[in-house]
Amino acid sequence: MVLLQTLSLATVLISASLAQTPPGVSPSASANLGVTYPHNVVVSPPGVLLPQNEVATQPTIFAQPGASPTSSYILFMLDIDTILNSTATNVLHWFEPNFTMHSSSRSRELFNSSDVDVASYIAPAPLPGPAHRYVFTLFERPEHFVFPACYDSIFPPTAAARVGFNLSEFVSVARLGSPVAGNYFRVQNDTTTAPPVVTATSLSSAACSPTRA
């Protein structure tokens, strides 16, 4: 019995050390997504604390090792520690629906390959209090991906338009499958103000059915 408990604990610890997304957050990813901000500010290791001014501009994204150069990818970036009116929720900071990798690129850098609508990058700006976690999640784009029209509200580049974004629901509705890579960093507002008190948790729910090819 002791041996089994020891092995179970070791399995949990190994899984946690391999995860590239925050513990307990779903969907999770075990492959590392490369994220580099201007001036060579690299998001590494996952969960690194970065100054707010260093993440003000949209970063460059690099696909995970072994990624197919012929595939297309969908990227999400969320603040999963937002508190609004004492309610814990998420805010979508970036949605890129058509990333591709140049076949000649040895760095695996991903590029926007079309003029399809994106939810443009919103820089992190957490309220005073504990550090916020900003999570990147990359999915392989299905061949016949159709953007769910019920999520059209995410495109304005404001937190108000994107608060409560439910990634798990979007993944289910759009039939994205499991993420192929992830990463995250933390940003803290050090202003000496009492942090907000959380009394509830809430995510939005879009009134739509799963998309069909």
Strand fraction band? Answer: 25-35%
Mean pLDDT: 86
Output the helix-strand order. Answer: HEEEEEEEEHHEE
Helix content: 10-25%
DSSP summary, beta strand count:
10
Low-confidence stretches: 1-16
The class by helix and strand makeup works out as: alpha+beta
Distance between the termini: 50 Å
Q: In one word, what is the shape?
A: globular
Radius of gyration: 18 Å
Major sheet summary line = 7 strands, mixed
- SS element count, helices: 3
Quick summary:
Helix content is 14%, strand content 28%.
Give the SSE layout.
Elements: H1 2-18, E1 34-37, E2 41-42, E3 48-49, E4 60-62, E5 72-84, E6 87-101, E7 110-112, E8 132-140, H2 159-162, H3 167-174, E9 181-187, E10 200-201
Parallel strand pairs: 3-9, 6-10
Antiparallel strand pairs: 1-2, 1-4, 5-6, 5-8, 6-7, 8-9
Overall description:
14% of the residues lie in helices and 28% in strands. The protein is built from three helices and ten strands; from the N terminus they run αββββββββααββ. It has helices at 2-18, 159-162, 167-174, and strands at residues 34-37, 41-42, 48-49, 60-62, 72-84, 87-101, 110-112, 132-140, 181-187, 200-201. The N and C termini lie far apart (50 Å). It is an alpha+beta fold and 213 residues long.
